[in-house]
Amino acid sequence: MDSLDVPEFTPKHRVPPRLRDYFTGASPFHRHLESVRKQTSFGQTPFRRKIPECSPLQENFDPQRIAFLLHKQWTLYTLTPMYKFSYTNLKEYSSLLKSFIAAEKQKGLAVEMEEDFNFKVIFSTLSGVKGTQRDPAAFLVQIISKSQLSSKNAEEKVVWTGWFCCVYGDSLLENVPDDFTCLPLFLANGAESNTALIGTWFQQTFDCRFTRLTISAFNLSWMAAMWTACNLEHYVAATELLWSVPCSPQSLDISYAIHPEDAKALWDSVHQAPEEITQEEVDLFIDCLCSHFHRHFKINLAATRLVCVSTSVASAHTDGKIKVVKEMLL
User: Fold this and answer.
1) Is 162 exposed, middle or buried (0-12, 13-18, 19+ CB in 10 A)?
2) What are the extents of the domains in the chain?
3) What is the tens place of the pLDDT at every residue in 271-313?
4) pTM of this prediction?
5) 296: closest CA among 23, 36, 15?
């Protein structure tokens, strides 16, 4: 999710007067913004993203399984294609990974499980987490522990979860050899020491590599717009954006919260085509919010860096951590 060098585009439409006055007003900052837009030369087609239609594979969607993934903070990683990975061997992988963890624990390496705990490793497929028939099936890895001192009916505890997925990855799959399985996104929830240990096993077993994934301010602005665009039966949480102000000796953060209905009304006023979202619309959405903030507090957020967005649907931080709280419907 590296930031792309995409120029700002002159909007072909304007926010309706009521919302324009509310979010921008006739501030000097807004007039300067409009002046810059008029003087800028734009030679490229605006960057656009199609809104995917409902997946034809949604009949395989298991709401209970997906609900397990909600309300948890996930750390994002990219993953190179895995060599000789097979979905028919998931039970064998469970046994091999368990033996690997036990061996590393005996060596005294940090494993986030108590000494008196038994544990098991479970690999399982995650139905419905794919966009097209061509996408490889997502799968889930769980470490589950149970105290040896407890009764047989004691509740088992999930101490670590990771899932691997590829959604609408047609462009990535074009040049992947048959011996490789491409699941480029890995999400982990649990102790980092466990993540590192399990990542080592995957790298040794499937000749792949994990890389921590950060989220640029460019992509955070897209997430803020797209999640605001989602249709919800009711709004629960405010739309919140967090900007980091670089200063010495320590950084300063500015938190900006907008009522979710106001944020949705603003987005609806700038969004045009129902089948796609454009860079122009995202820029205008963020610009209006920044102009409104400048009008009231005389702080130019353009001099800061967007580091976190939080909505009724999900939240994301530039350090590559996300939390999904609702299923997303555009």
Assistant:
1) buried
2) 17-54+215-324, 81-208
3) 988 788 899 999 999 999 999 999 999 999 988 999 999 999 9
4) 0.79
5) 23
